[in-house]
Inverse folding.
């Protein structure tokens, strides 16, 4: 079964990235959380990206704040899909710098980008990618989408006086 890597630039990103892990765990998708710094441990980060496919990873979710180079640098060294999570961190400009850094990748090195701090959306996107070749994940996603519809219907009923 394919795995999803959840990489972050530092431990301070863990609170944001936990939502991705929780969602993948709920879907019973094998995942691994790791700290890889594009700036402090670039050799380790590149080695991980270059070997990720051979180690069974199918998707990489990468969260970073500030300059947020981690998702783009991982994408530069692998053909696996990389989903970037801009993190609003203590050294960021309310997350805008991170968002723009991740979204503004040059042609040829794409990084799928979700909203600031939206690691759950990154996990959902990873599941959608995996669902193309896994009927079990596809079924769980359909159930998840149905639950969202039901939630809206319930809210609609609650406000009808």
């Amino acid at each position: 079964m394919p795995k999803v890597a959840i990489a972050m630039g530092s431990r301070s990103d863990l609170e944001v990235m936990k939502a991705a892990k929780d969602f993948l765990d709920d879907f019973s998708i094998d995942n691994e959380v790791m700290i890889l710094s594009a700036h402090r441990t670039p050799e380790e980060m590149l080695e991980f990206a270059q070997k990720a496919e051979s180690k069974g990873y199918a998707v990489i979710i990468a969260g970073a704040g500030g300059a947020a180079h981690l998702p783009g640098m991982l994408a530069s060294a692998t053909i696996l899909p990389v989903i970037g999570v801009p993190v609003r961190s203590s050294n960021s400009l309310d997350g805008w710098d991170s968002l723009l850094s991740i979204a503004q990748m040059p042609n040829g090195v794409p990084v799928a980008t979700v909203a600031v701090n939206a690691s759950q959306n990154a996990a959902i996107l990873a599941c959608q990618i995996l669902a193309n070749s896994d009927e079990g994940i596809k079924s769980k996603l359909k159930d998840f989408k149905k639950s969202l519809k039901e939630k809206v219907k319930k809210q609609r009923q609650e406000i009808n006086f």
